Amino acid sequence: MPLAWLFRAASTRPPGQAFTLTFAFAAGFFGALLLWLPGSLTPLFGPGVGALYPALVGGLALLWAGTVALTRQVLGPATLWALPFAWVLLDTARGLGPFGFTWGSLGYAFASTPLVQLADLGGLSLVGLLVTLTAAALADRRPRVLLGVAALLLLGALYGLTRPPDAPGTQWALLVQGNVDPRAKVQGRTADELGRYLDLTRAGLAADPAQLVVWPETAAPAAPTSPELARALTALNVPLLLGAPTEQGGYRNSVYAFAGGEVRGRQDKVRLVPFGEYFPGRSQLDGAYRTVFRALGLPALTGTVPGRRLSPLPVGNVLVGALICYESTFPAFARAQVRRGARVLAVVSNDAWFGPSVGAEQHFQMGRVRAIETRRWVLRAGNDGVTAAVAPSGRVTARLPRAVAGALPVSFAQAGAITPYVRWGEWVTALSALVLLGLWLSVREGCFQVSKTREQGPG
């Protein structure tokens, strides 16, 4: 495991060398993980947007390197076993604030194994802690340590393999994928977009009746409060969850619940994409932003007004916790919706910006873990994909191909149980902070011992 090599090497070098080594390692990791970024955005906006890629990779590498160097500086001989817990704090911190970015959180390394089922106990943080503890044990190399962590992994795997099967779906939803060019949306909305979604929905309902319909992020060109759109939606005679813009004190990226001929609720996007929906210093740097937008062939964007709170939406007889695109990568958002009563989660997204790259697939796989953390069905509708249904076990039960227009009938079930993670939140992060405090006190009192072999460095 490359992470084990990094842990061993960084824990035996001075802080400055540990910083340099980790920066190079992290730059390689994030450079490969996010390689789709310039490849997907350059065809849309030209080579200038490629500058975002090294800036993002460099910033993330600095976070990794700074964490390792600080841990080495403060905890000295305890560094190797402090790093697993420091990494939990790092991954949690990366999801905070307006620039939060969770791509590359280490818990996703076990997303395709039974160990990911532990997420219902402690969220992605618990799974990530197992990843880093495994790396530390491999770096430590002592047989009793390896056996101890192996036993821990075995217990985790047994937990994952013995989870109850998913409850069978008792209701039906129709997930609609319009496959609309995202650049056309920015240049100006048209009635053709709405007509496409209405036609797909009518055809889908005629073939497979459903209790609710889900349209993607910004699927409708206007809010369903407009009389014309309200009449068209009412004629479908089915409860809908649909993405649409809201012009209220500025532009808002919203999801509406529409049923019985009227709007039943609205959720505005809370977590905005930095430099995509949120432009820091927009008014102060107006000239610079306008120059960049012109170079990218875009109008003078002003950004999106963020929502203030999350609240489940009543869509027919289903209380749905909506996550708008980027929000599905943050565990706290799904947890908040379920704590407020959501019995099903819905992700509405517009991943067409990713093009044919793996970015959309990475986005989908991250959101899939939200089903496990909350033990809720996730109904996902994307403009060009990924459109799919995910069971509470994280199993994908149905999925449309990407980059085609279509409507996907899926079965699902409502759930009311509260998982330990939903109830207690980031207790793993709090525990990690306490462990680091204990290690620091042990080092300060001279109680922490380390073998000469490990302190001398890799052989």
TrEMBL record:
GO terms for biological process: lipoprotein biosynthetic process. PROSITE patterns: CN_HYDROLASE. Keywords: Acyltransferase, Cell membrane, Lipoprotein, Membrane, Transferase, Transmembrane, Transmembrane helix. It is an enzyme of class 2 (transferase). It is a multi-pass membrane protein. Its EC number is 2.3.1.269. The keyword Membrane applies. SUPFAM superfamilies: Carbon-nitrogen hydrolase. The chain crosses the membrane at residues 21-39, 51-71, 121-138, 145-162. Its main location: membrane. Pathway: Protein modification; lipoprotein biosynthesis (N-acyl transfer). It holds the Pfam family LNT_N. The keyword DNA-binding does not apply. Residues 176-414 form the CN hydrolase domain. Catalyzes the phospholipid dependent N-acylation of the N-terminal cysteine of apolipoprotein, the last step in lipoprotein maturation. Belongs to the CN hydrolase family. Apolipoprotein N-acyltransferase subfamily. HAMAP family: Lnt (MF_01148). This is Apolipoprotein N-acyltransferase. It comes from Deinococcus budaensis. The gene is lnt.
